[in-house]
Amino acid sequence: QLQLVESGGGLVQPGGSLRLSCAASGFTLNSYTIGWFRQAPGKEREGVSCISSIRAITNYADSVKGRFTISRDNAKNTVYLQMNSLKPEDTAVYYCAAISTFQAMCSINRTWYAYWGQGTQVAVSS
């Protein structure tokens, strides 16, 4: 059974850092494009970042460029989202998602993705 499990969320002060993990089970992550999304209370789910299955091409939302970094460790079957210089507006539930593709590109459009994790809460507050 294909499953994605996010971890690493928590409460952090503004300016702090967190690293989220997206661990896959039931399938081999290296043939999938992975996206990170977030949903704040009362708002729609928005794309944050993605990484392609071929050449690990990355893409970021403008709101996180220069602060967030996505990476993948195929040996550990895990994708990471390093989040630095966190702001209160980054507070949300963060989800990872996967789609089986063999492309050197990716999209942060949520309709691209077929499989979703349950999410991990990130709260940025002083």
Q: Could you walk me through the main structural features you see in this protein, from its secondary elements to its overall organization?
A:
Helix content is 0%, strand content 48%. With 126 residues, the chain is mainly beta. Strands 2, 4, 5, 6, 9, 10 and 11 form a seven-stranded mixed β-sheet that branches. Strands 1-3-8-7 form a four-stranded antiparallel β-sheet, with no helix packed on it.
- Largest sheet features: 7 strands, mixed
- Average of per-residue pLDDT values: 96
Helix content: under 10%
Query: C-alpha Rg, in Å?
Result: 13 Å
H/E element order: EEEEEEEEEEE
Give a short synopsis of this structure:
By secondary structure, the protein is mainly beta. It has strands at residues 3-7, 10-12, 18-25, 32-39, 46-51, 58-60, 68-73, 78-83, 92-100, 115-116, 120-124.
Provide tags for this entry:
11 strands; globular; 126 residues; single chain; seven-stranded mixed sheet; mainly beta
Summarize the topology:
Layout: E1 3-7, E2 10-12, E3 18-25, E4 32-39, E5 46-51, E6 58-60, E7 68-73, E8 78-83, E9 92-100, E10 115-116, E11 120-124
Parallel strand pairs: 2-11
Antiparallel strand pairs: 1-3, 3-8, 4-5, 4-9, 5-6, 7-8, 9-10, 9-11
